[in-house]
Amino acid sequence: MASRTLLCWDFDWSLIEENSDTWVLQQLGAEAFYKAGRQAGTQWTQLMDECLEQAASQLGRTPADVQAALHATPFHPAMVALLRRLAAAGSDSNSGMDGGGDSGGVAGGGGSAIDVAVISDANTVYIDTILTHHGLAPAVLEVHSNPAEWRGGALRVAPYHTAPHGCRHCPSNLCKGQVLASLLRRQAAAGRLYDRVLYVGDGKGDYCPSALLLHASQHWHPASDAAAAGGAEAAGSAANGTTAAAAQRGQASSIAPGPCGSGSNRVYARESYPDGLPCSLWVMLRNEAAGGGDSSSGNQAEAEAPEAGSEVAAAGQAGGGRARVVPWSRPEELAELLSKELQLG
Ligand SMILES: [Zn+2]
């Protein structure tokens, strides 16, 4: 029987080579609003909403200006090519999997099925616009992000979760672990059971879903699961079409879904940014593997990538085996790692 893989992406600095939130504000010349809001301690999603509103009302920036900024967002050709190959593999395949015809469900090597999802703290309009601009919307099964819409010529952004999500690791607007758990439960209910999940991320917000996948650690209170699952899930799922509308609310369970904790799962954690600064997810996972569980230890930047990856693997998986946390820093390096893992040839 063919295997089924979920390839789950963070967006900023994982799929694209920028932070789309700050990039767009820079392009719009709205940095002063951003700086003022940061100084005032405004919560991130609310800050983006306010800055975009001010860019429209005070600077006269139009939807076309925002769109132009999004089209110019740095997106490495190797990443674009990887997703295009996944999309092409999907359209070339004769369906056959689970009744076939799922957009975003694509075929990898060895008759395996690969579903691609994006879970991001940016917003739905940014992600949809960028994916569509590069012809990548058909490659993605689901997009989960803060819901955005045009109102009075301004893009307005709302939090993904409309109720407290009870996760101690995640920002108030979005717990990616719960979004991923909910996605896995929905897919399982529809008969799509994943054998493994590959997760790509860089930031603090990617720790919660990574912990869920690596060792089935759930960092939110089960009682809050239902509230969060029924939050903005339907509104926040832009996707490429059908799946978002079919998103079911309130399918809560405190039991981690199928592949969570599986030894086949991998977390592709970005190790450093182009400016050399270390990425939070990598530092957190490495410290956790070292037994510290505290990301405040001072020696963050000295690990060499391959050795550190092996350490994380050894500590994270009894019995050894392949590294479950895979470090990467350059997009072309990640594209090669994933092509190999997914047997794209
Ligand atoms: Zn969380």
TrEMBL record:
UniProt-annotated stretches for the region Disordered: 290-329
Active site: D10 (nucleophile), D12 (proton donor)
Binding, substrate: D21, D121
Binding site for Mg(2+): D10, D12, D202
Stretches with biased composition (Low complexity): 307-316
Record-given protein name: Uncharacterized protein
Alphabetically ordered keywords of this record: Magnesium, Metal-binding
